Model the fold of this input.
Amino acid sequence: MANNTKNVVIGKRQILREIKNGNIFEIRIAADAETQYITALIEVAKKNGIDYRICSTMNQIAVDYGIEVPSGAVGVLKE
Done:
């Protein structure tokens, strides 16, 4: 698992931008994010053939990736 901010982009807007650039390997989404947020990211992931995982919480994503504030999702960048 990638767990530093060099390997990920944070938040929906950055994830969508990097998907357009072909740079996202996987999306990790917090289970406690807003339903519309989760649904939108899952739809984009499926449409683009990108794997996604539902993770525990926004706080846990912040801890796992060294982010200062809770985050609804991170996109893991291709290496």
Observations:
- The CA atoms of residues 33 and 72 lie 5 Å apart.
- The chain has three helices and four strands.
- The longest strand covers residues 24-30.
- The chain has a mean pLDDT of 93.
